[in-house]
Protein: MAM domain-containing protein
Amino acid sequence: MVNLIINEGNTSLSFSEYHSVDNKCQSLTGNMTKHKGGYMLEVNQTVGSNYVERIFFRPIYHGYSGEQNEEMNMVLYGCLDGNDNGFRIKSYKSYIKFVAGGCKIGDELVLIMSNSRHPQTLQLYKSAQVIEDEACIDILHFTALDTYTECGDEMVDEDQKLRHAKIDEDNEFVDVECRVENIRPSNNNISNFFKEPRVLTVVAYIDASLSGEQIAHISCRYNSETSAECEWIRQDTCFKTNLTQTLSSNQIQISSSILKLNGSTVPIDWSGFVLWENGDEYISMHCGLVDDDGACDSVRVYVWSDEDHMDQPTINEIYRELQKVCIDPTDLIFLNTFHECLIPSPTPSFLHCQSPNGWSPITLSMLQGVWYIAADLNADPKLFLQSTVINMKRIQNTSDLELIYYAQKESDGRCIGPGNGTVKLTNDGELHVHIEYSYSFVPGYKSSIKFKFQILYLDNQRAILYWCFRRSSNGTCIQHDVTFMIRSRHFSHNDLSMILPYLDKVCIDRKDLRWFDLHSQCGTEISSSTILRRDLITLTHYHVLDILTNVQEPKCLYNEIRGVKADLHSLERAGTWFLMSRMDEMSMDTYAMVGRIFTVTNTTAVLRLFQSASVSLQKLISKRLFSVHYRVKLENVSHAFSQFEKEKIMRKRIIVIFRFLFYNRHVGVIYSCLRNKKDGRY
Structure:
């Protein structure tokens, strides 16, 4: 552990270093000054005879991370034999000895430093990449030091004290701010929030008590500061309940009731402390269960707003507030904020599969911003795309929107963009889209495509665009298309359940939907409209793949491959796993895969898998069931898959042994050698 303090005059740093040798804490002191684009470090040593060791370091990497740039990481490089860019000078009592010459391989001195006991995985990767590119040193040659020792603990900041630095059973860092006891909500004026009449809508929530209830809308009209009448919508069914509440300095006690799907009416508790408030919206949070590590294991969150439409900057701010208390914003379930509760529900004015009523209300502000296409209809006419992201901005002094798009072709994976276009919102609620595109082999030539859409559904996070191309004599649509768009790269089961009733109205089966790749790198130039997962330990799959090629030394022999431990319970707790990228020599060409693991014992589990693949241009969607057996053999950490698959002709039993080359609870890289050569190469 190194402690640096600026000396008087701001020209140098006081240096204190703490290290453990044979479980004994020792310290060194010294001074750091700027010198030739780097730092001259003078360390007072006591080894045999007293002398001052001087080492010149040049910083080759310096980066910040974290929501408020609170984490700093850097790489210092120097040479033990000394040269113009890095040298070592020794001062023995009254004389100085210079060591000249070039920096030889093996004489480099490289330090990866961080002001966090548990730096981000991505920062470690970037440090390793710089060392590989700039100094030609393989990161595997480094010695990892233990950052969780008591030596020097009295010198670190409070949030880095050893008592706050816990590693859970999945070898992940438990942040000090994640502990319930350390959550400090920002100051708010919730006591004045209800001084004026309010009609509040639940924009989003996290609440296990509403699981499976298919709630699409909740809004409450306040008669006073302490009572309100609430309207609930479950698809086309509407019911009303009463609400009572009491306010304190930072707590809000709310009780109401809900008509459940089974017909019973039960109480529901919306109480909690006010995490954030801005005058128009507020977030309430309640922790039902505190885990062993001090973090909340059962959280209830409600986001209330008196605005029907919540703009993206406000949603971003809400995401950041939840991230501060270690709540994953992607767990939020967004509701429709625009419905009105009518009892009894109106009878639809159209026959089944005929022209549906357009969505209302629709404004340009509701359409602006970044959208990701999550699915469309697997039918003709169709432009087969693998991923698409669009950004719509209002054109000044007009009622049109400027459209910028990036699209990845399914045939060759080529990314097209940025492309341009316009979107016009008509008075009858239709969208007229006009986009331009060009061909690389015909420079300067641009062609265009025109689309028409009817907005079937629209809220803060989702949109369904529909169009019927051809109808039968009785008005039933016999050729149509649908496009499902969401605001972020994260798609949840709740997003699907919200749109299914509207797809049913136009006779579209969910099995006919064709799903897009939401994690494609095509379109990253368009900034995402939402901040998603905490990035303390996450790593993009592209960086993981780069680690295997750019940082680690190549392992070309089968017996050289070593796996890392991936606990089955950890795999289960991580939830749903999506296939990001692949390289295989299978007969099937897999282009989408999603699965989830359910543990049976500590060494066995069941994997339920959905796979989209093609064989000889024929596309198939398969549901597969695997049994997973964990085993450790020699130094290899291995996992064995046993697959049991029923087919019309025969029953197959396939066993595949694979290893995790990289794993945390967000990213995994799996390797399997199906056959190796006689010389041991695969």
About this structure: Residues 84-102, 345-350, 529-538, 634-651 have pLDDT under 50 and may be disordered. The domain at 364-515 is CATH 2.40.128.20 (Lipocalin). Helices lie at 121-135, 190-193, 312-324, 364-367, 493-505, 541-551, 568-573.
